[in-house]
Amino acid sequence: MAKLWGKAEENMGFVPNVFKAQAYNGEQFLAWWRYFNLLVNKEGHLSNADREFLAVVVSNLNRCTYCCISHGAALREYSGDARMADLVAVNWRQAGLDERRQAMAAYAEKLTLHPAEVTQADLQPLREVGLDDHEILELVQVVGMFNMTNRVSTAIGMVPNEEYHSQGRP
C-alpha cells in the first residue's frame, strides 16, 4: 500500500481518498486495484477518454459523488473538453454527444439501471456506431466495474479529494 500511495503522490501530487478509505482491508483493495488498473488505466480497445466517459455516466446514474468528481476530472483531462465532461456528470443527454457516445451511454444506462432487461438486441446500436466485439466487451466490463465501485464508494461515504475539482480545467 505504501508503494502505491507513494506512486500516486508522485504522479498526481496527492493520495486519492479511495486509497485511504480502503486501506483497512489492504489485500482486498490491492486485488480490486489490480483489476481496476488493468481495465481502466491501460491502452485498450476503447480510448482512455471513452472509459472515463463510461465511468462518469455510470457514476452519475448511481449518484456516486466520489466517482463523478474523480472520473469527471479524468474525463476532462483525457477528452480536453471540460464543458462536455461537466455536462456528462450531470446528464449525458444534454451534453451534445456524437452518435457513438450516445449509444455507449444509453447501453451503460440500461445495464446500470435495468440489468435484468438487457438482451443481445441491446448490442446492435453499439455495432451500428462502429464498436466491435472487443470494444463492446470492454464497455461491459467498465460498466460492471463502476457499478461495483460506486456501491462501495457510496456505502463507505468517500469524499472526493479537493484536487479533483480543478483538475483538467483551462
TrEMBL record:
Q: Which UniProt keywords apply?
A: Oxidoreductase, Peroxidase
Q: Does the keyword Oxidoreductase apply?
A: yes
Record InterPro entries: AhpD-like, AhpD_core, CMD-like, Uncharacterised_peroxidase-rel
Pfam families in the record, alphabetically? Answer: CMD
Q: Which residues form the Carboxymuconolactone decarboxylase-like domain?
A: 28-109
The GO molecular function terms of this record are: peroxiredoxin activity
By its UniProt entry, which PANTHER family does this protein fall under? CARBOXYMUCONOLACTONE DECARBOXYLASE-LIKE DOMAIN-CONTAINING PROTEIN, SI:CH211-175M2.5
**Protein name in UniProt:** Alkylhydroperoxidase
Q: Which organism does this record belong to?
A: Intrasporangium chromatireducens Q5-1
